[in-house]
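Re-run with default settings, no changes from the original entry. Doing this only to confirm the output is reproducible before filing.
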Amino acid sequence: IMVHELFERIDFQSSEHWQRHIQQALKRYPAGVRTPDGDGHLRIQEMLHILTRTALGANGPALQDVPRNRRLNEASFHLPLRKMDCAGLLNWAAQRSIGLNIPESGSLEGLLNGVVDLFFEHQGRYYILDWKSDRLGDTVNEYDLPLLEQAMAERNYTLQYYLYTLALYRYLKHRITGFDYEMHFGGVFYVFLRGVREGSDRGIYHRKPPLGDVLALEEQMLAHAL
């Protein structure tokens, strides 16, 4: 909670007020950071510098290139669900080799609410970013891509980013004249904070779901496709 709040408040392009935000966060969450030397403030500041300078993926932007007026924090969405059984969702996933960790029986219906940590635009392309503080292990090697892929499947983060993508797709196609998914959408980043290191893509998971799979999920889940 503390880390999410910090990323919501800081300016990615300027560290001028970071110290104040960190002090406020540590005051609100005094047990949020425990370090052997007791200097959580410096550790957090170092983490913020690394995370804002590190490129997201091979050709992705760095957050220090994203001004405040090109980002939306904690973007909420609502999706109207049709009555849908879990078997149908599992079948959708199996056809696309997507790992899901849900019961084989049961059904869903109603209004699905979600919140995207960060939605931002860079050079005409739109991105989704989700911060993850999951502890995958005690060494940075445990944040390499194969282990990230395993964690994504086991914790249903893959389904989560498909839903985020569906919500964003429905939003953008009504807001941007001539919206083109392939041209305008840059994909989803899951940033596992404990594994990110400067000059490396370790801890950063990037995917752009095929539009056909997103539309199939929309048909499968939503009460009325717009």
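The mean pLDDT is 89. Strands lie at 71-85, 107-122, 125-132, 185-192, 204-207.
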